[in-house]
Amino acid sequence: MSNNSSIKLTHYLSPVGKLVLGDYNGKLCLCDWADRKHPDIIFNRLQKSLNTSFQDAHTALHDHTINQLSAYFAHALTQFDLPLLPVGTDFQQAVWSQLDSIEYGQTVSYQYIANALNKPQSVRAVANAIGANALSLLIPCHRIIGSNGAVTGYAGGVPAKTYLLAWESND
User: Fold this and answer.
1) How far apart, in whole angstroms, are the C-alpha atoms of residue 149 and residue 43?
2) What is the DSSP letter of 142?
3) DSSP bridge partners of 53
4) Which one from 113, 130, 134, 141 is the annotated catalytic residue?
5) How far apart are CA 78 and CA 150, in angstroms?
6) CA nearest to 144, candidates 111, 107, 170, 101
7) How many whole angstroms separate alpha carbon 146 and alpha carbon 114?
């Protein structure tokens, strides 16, 4: 496998935990929590779907991503502008597209996303698709809460999600 087609990995230490960043041919396919439960599921999906391997290497896109993440955590950026490559099924892509439309500082429920997709009975499938998001923060899955307003599961952990929601609401 050529190094040119590998997913190049680096890390970023955010105020709420370490993120793994993956650059595949100039597009970010991974911005995920290093301490996520079962990271192999996302890594395997990326490797299989893109027919590639992983390589520890730092790229200009990583620098650009780190600059934007740092600006976000400095309250200087509310919307990311990065070339993304979300890798998933058509349904996952549809869910992630809905996530991407949620404004900074806003929250919606899993049911809201299911309704927006005209699939009101698919709340559990929506939750699974949100959990499969490999571009955390950039595709803002932290903005999803339970219908009762409860802060629910998050790949970075509920404390990280609580922090991010408070961070955005206090801007």
Assistant:
1) 31
2) G
3) none
4) 141
5) 23
6) 107
7) 12
pLDDT, tens only, 8-66: 999 999 999 999 999 999 999 999 999 887 778 899 999 999 999 999 999 999 999 99
Strand order of the β-sheet with 27-33 is 27-33, 17-24, 7-14, 54-56
User: CA 61, CA 59: separation in Å to the nearest integer?
Assistant: 5
100-157, pLDDT tens digit by residue? 999 999 999 999 999 999 999 999 999 999 999 999 999 999 999 988 888 988 888 8
Instruction: Return the bridge partners of 55, or none.
Output: 8
Rounded Cα distance between 46 and 147, Å, is: 31
Q: How far apart are CA 163 and CA 134, in angstroms?
A: 19
Q: Residue 1: pLDDT above 60?
A: no
**Per-residue CA distances from 106 to 27, 87, 171 (Å):** 27, 25, 12
Torsion sign (Cα): 8, 138, 27, 63: negative
User: Beta strands 54-56 and 17-24: pairing type?
Assistant: unpaired
Can you give the pTM of this predicted structure? 0.91
Strand partners, 169: none
The 10s digit of each residue's pLDDT in 65-99 is 999 999 999 999 999 999 999 999 999 999 999 99
Q: Is 141 a catalytic residue?
A: yes
